[in-house]
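Lab intake sheet, docking and co-folding queue.

SAMPLE TYPE: protein with bound small molecule
LIGAND NAME: magnesium ion
LIGAND FORMAT: SMILES
REQUESTED OUTPUT: full 3D complex as structure tokens
PRIORITY: normal
SUBMITTED BY: R.K., bench team

The fields below were copied directly from the construct record.
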Amino acid sequence: MEGALIARDRVGVQDFVLLDSHTSEAAFLNNLRKRYQENLIYTYIGTLLVSVNPYKELDIYTVTQMQLYRGVNFFELPPHLYAIADNAYRVMCSEYNNHFILISGESGAGKTEASKKILQYYAVTCPTTEQLQVVRDRLLLSNPVLEAFGNAKTLRNDNSSRFGKYMDIQFDFKGAPVGGHILSYLIEKSRVVHQNHGERNFHIFYQLLEGGEKDLLCWLGLERNPQKYAYLVQGRCAKVFSINDKNDWKIVRKAFSIIDFTEKDLEHLFGIVASVLHLGNIQFEEDSNGHAIIRNGTQIKWISKVLSPLNVDLAFYARDAVAKAIYGRTFTWLVNKINGSLANKDSTRKTVIGLLDIYGFEVLDTNSFEQFCINYCNEKLQQLLIEMTLKAEQEEYEMEGIEWEPIPYFNNKIICDLVEQKHKGIISILDEECLRPGEATDLSFLEKLEEKVGDHAHFVTRKLADQKTRKSIDWVDFRLLHYAGEVTYCAVGFLEKNNDLLYRNLKEVLCNSKNGIVRDCFLLSELDSRRRPETVATQFKNSLMSLIEILMSKEPSYIRCIKPNENKEPGKFDDCLIRHQVKYLGLMEHLRVRRAGFAYRRKYEHFLRRYKSLCPATWPHWHGPAAEGVERLIKHIGYKPEEYKLGRTKIFIRFPKTLFATEDAFEIRKHLLVSRLQAKYKGRLGKRDYQKKRKAAIKLEACWRGVLARKEAKKRTWAVQIIRKFIQGFINRKKPLCPENVEFVRLVQYKYLMKLRDHIPRNVLDKSWLQPPSILEEISEMLQKMCIRNLVRKYCRGVTPERKVQLQQKAVTSAIFRGKKEGYQQSINLPFADTRLSISTSNLGDGIVVMHVPEDNKQKGDVILQCEHIFEMVTKLCMLANKQNLVKVVKGSLRFRIGSGKEGTMVFTVGPEPHVFKAKDGQLTVVRPHQGTGSLVLAFPSDAQPLWESLRKHPWKRVVSVKRLLNRNLKETQFVFNLLTPFSHPRCQTRQSLDEKQFLVTRNGKEPAG
Ligand SMILES: Nc1ncnc2c1ncn2[C@@H]1O[C@H](COP(=O)(O)OP(=O)(O)O)[C@@H](O)[C@H]1O
Ligand SMILES: [Mg+2]
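RESULT FIELD (auto-filled):
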């Protein structure tokens, strides 16, 4: 893996551990320089990050970059702050423990920038929610506020932190930032009243004057010109081109609004800032008593009153003391206020990542109490680093029985002791001088130091120094040989700054201030307290102790910042300066320990607990001793002997790659296990769900079946009742209607009627009728009668008058012929014509009448009758036939048919005697007599002989004589009846019109017998 990393790296090596000559300082510097010149400002020593201030904006802090580093193995990508931040975050999330990132380096090396970038990284990459957005913004925006009040331009750094800051970012179990807490350390108050040449006061003063709204400045009584304020002009650089105060003011104002500052708070806060500026402008002069009075300005006479009876020097001193006290305490108030807005009220357990950005090691031309404290602080942090890395590491190897050749390193504990040891340390001596009765001065303090720590190897004064060094040390100076180099401190002001006293009457005034913040900062209870407050140095020492304690309880990550040159110049790599830093930061020792040592160690139990899933023998439980379990485990994974060592209680892994490979394997395994767990769990859920559904389905089914069964049962009960009723009805069907049979009978009636409807006869001839059940016979009979009557009526209505006549005739025919005469049956359907008869007579007085047979019957001949009452007879015949144009009266002769299509002629003449004769040619001649009775000539077909016979025998006495007219050869015989009575005799009637075949004469309306 590391091979790949080298390839990935364009310049030098990205981890000093990979340097060939790891003991060579030159090689170390070379690598650093090469990378720096390519803008690769970060390099690792194992897991420690070395950063060189580029003094220019680099394109490596974008959101894309942040995403790139998020969740990636530490060594996978080129070194970066983000890798350190992400590593700490990931370990925190997976192991649920607390971390801190210690950012160290001298002033201007880039610590504050680094801490801000880390904070931004968390703000961007950590999961968050809408509610947590506010927390995130507040965490981010606490920076500009604190920087405005706590940072200033110094010679080393245009944005130098003049206070120490430790910030805890709190995360919930999901890894979302949910709150924060800030600890601040010893703000450099002296800067409020005094700045060295080329330096500025705290940014806020300039920001307010540059950016403050006109109204605000007016209200505060300020002018937009820093030159007007004594506290702002001492450094003679109120304007700095790299700082945009106006812009920064806007940012600070916005930050205030987000961090929960009310308008009142801001009013008070800016009031304090302004009052400090005003204080600075107060000038005193001596009155006649040698007392200080305020030079100009009547309205603040009280100040001189409060301050009197002081001389002018003391008055100035008191003025500055008030300014410092107000500013210093306001800063503390500010930090508390921010903490209030960052606080997470939720009591669930949280993990934290602490960011320590504390003022860096500082060597100025004149170093005072503040530098002493700052450098002491750096000394302590160096000590912490040594304790936690070099020393602890080597001791651990020894303790664990790992073969180890000790690597010498400079342990700065000796310097720490020099400063902080009880009773013997510089701070104790300083406190003693401050507290002791009598005239204690900075010089007496110096003497005390010489007396008590004069023999310490790291302490020198002019008196103690050798000839050569003496020149560079003043009488009022003392020099400490810090781990990072020599620093000469000027003892002047040490006592006063350490005491940090404020005149009681001034305090009283401040306690009663109308400004809320001032009142909060100066509590009345403080006035009553008899106890002497702790000195500044002791307070600082104690706060450092507790900081170290806080840090010791957390997992560390280190960033070592290096300043490449003194001129804030980009690209300039000052070898000498950097070599010095590399040395005092102990980077070479760190590298050597790292190289010789092991990248990773872990207690057997922990190691086994984390990775036991990688080996079947240890998964899921290992019951033997943890060490053995680990041995089995690593054997299974296949660690090579050179990759690890087994200590007494821990396993030591030499190369990160070995651990990463294991971690990767674990990651894969974890996924596998998780998916198995998920599968099991999902299975359970599915099963539970299935069971639930099944139960529900069964219940539903049961219910539904119940419903169906009840329905069925109801139906059956109903059916049984119906059947029973039916049977009962059937049994009782013959009884008169009663409840037992009424329904049955109705049903039978209904059924019969419905059936009958489809079988009703449709015409009068249809005699069929549906057989009724026995109980309905009577009704059925009635119905049938009705039906027939109805049909007949309908039929009768449909009969036309012509048809009626026809039918009447047919009825007569039936009466005459039915069952008697052949052919009757066939004749029924043949309708009778109105008349087939036509009659001819001559115009003479004879009694001859010829009845013409219709021409369609060729077989038959016409009937020739001779009748006495010819007029009567013909008229009656016409009336009978209901036709008047039936009769033709001819002159001379007429033609008639004889039969078989032959015709004969009849000639009429007048003679003396009635006579009818047949000529030889067959012509029939009729002679009219002058007088006599009528005769009736009837012509019958020859086969009508029997009819004729019966007529002759008939006792119809009025037929007087009958003559045979025709010869026998003829098929047709014509007879002449001599009738005594005319045809109209009431007893002689014809019921029907004359027919060519039959001529029936009945008497009294009856058929002639025989
Ligand atoms: N990573 C960086 N990229 C660009 N400029 C930087 C970076 N780190 C520091 N600087 C520059 O160096 C100056 C000093 O950095 P700062 O973090 O304030 O130093 P320190 O806090 O160590 O005193 C910054 O104002 C900035 O101009
Ligand atoms: Mg800083």
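REVIEWER NOTE: The chain has a mean pLDDT of 83.
SIGN-OFF: pending second check by T.M.
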